[in-house]
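Entry:
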Amino acid sequence: MKVAMISLGCPKNQVSAEQMLHLLREAGHDITTDLDEAEAVVVNTCAFIEDARQEAVNTLLECAEFKKTGSLKTIVAAGCLPQLYAGEILSEMPEVDGVVGVGSCEDIAEALERAAAGGRPVLMGDNSAPVSECPRMISTGPAWAYLLIAEGCDNRCSYCVIPRIRGRFRSRAPEKILAEAEKLASYGYREIILVAQDLTRYGKDIPGWDLARLLRELCKIDGIDWIRLHYLYPHELTDELIDVIAGEPKIVKYLDIPIQHINDRILKLMNRRDTGDEIRALFKKLRGRIPGLVLRTSLISGLPGEGEAEFEELCEFLREARIERAGVFPFSPEEGTPAAAMEHADAETARRRAEKIQELQAGIMDEWESSLAGRTVSAICDGYDAETGEPVGRAYFDSPGIDGAVVFEGDVSPGDIVDITVISAEDGVLRGRTE
């Protein structure tokens, strides 16, 4: 069959989608990006919050329209949404022909073929099984690729469904990670982005290993010039790990550290292990020990316990900390989580507060961007703009698909990492002249 893949949600999902693409191709199917010509589609879903679940449902329904107008005959829902709601999907969405949970992604070819034969398969393997070592069909472009180092989560934040979806935390064997990194380097990928629900917990289940040691080994691999880290749990950022990040030139000085809030009572209700003062001290320490550091964080407005005073404390922290990158989400009470049963702000209040944080952060980012003009920064070329033909990419402080972009002036090719002089910076887009 001609099979299309749509992957929603986080980078971990993208890795799963790339593994499924490999398996489908190995099974003899043709991969297409055109739904008009596809005979089957796999939708790799996200279910982290209500908005993500709604996007997944809408995408499945949009695919169903192609059954009416095109060659599409088979739709398989995979990943996080089936992990939580397999029965509901099949009972309420007759358009979907089969479901595959996160523990059964390696069975995607079987699921697709059974679905195409009218079987409506439900494949739900162990979501805490060892991390899959299936090869991947890389889909991220010529310059960079994700490298998954662990799966699952044991943090049990009271608002989060990830442990129910992705299972318990388990690290990949270091030799498997290093071998895959060597292979990515041999293919020409110069930036690898380490991903996991919690990078900082890596190796807790492997005697003699931790993230600091893994990073030292990855930095020895020829051909890999940038190593980016997503995501770092603040409580586990040890002095040794900070020293490695600061001292290894290949580790880009961009750290994604989700904190969610700063108020002590809210953090405790959320089952986070840090206090507000510990977070403040950590960010100050990181700024002092890592020159050129750019911080990204995630925040939730309207969490249980958040009144106007707690919200203002969060805003004041952001004014002081001057975090360059931040994503903010209104609280989504997730079914089955302790936080859903706690008293919290109504949806409209949470949304209004999220918008206020976004406005606050936009001002902080504008001020920071204005300071970049005339500075020299390192940037990677990802390819060419489809309309202008200009080379485009990212500065070291831009993660793909999340942050900003760079337009290069000068001679540069995909995969090149060069120093640029920033000519202008506006709305997340830098224009830079190659040195």
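The chain has twelve helices and 19 strands.
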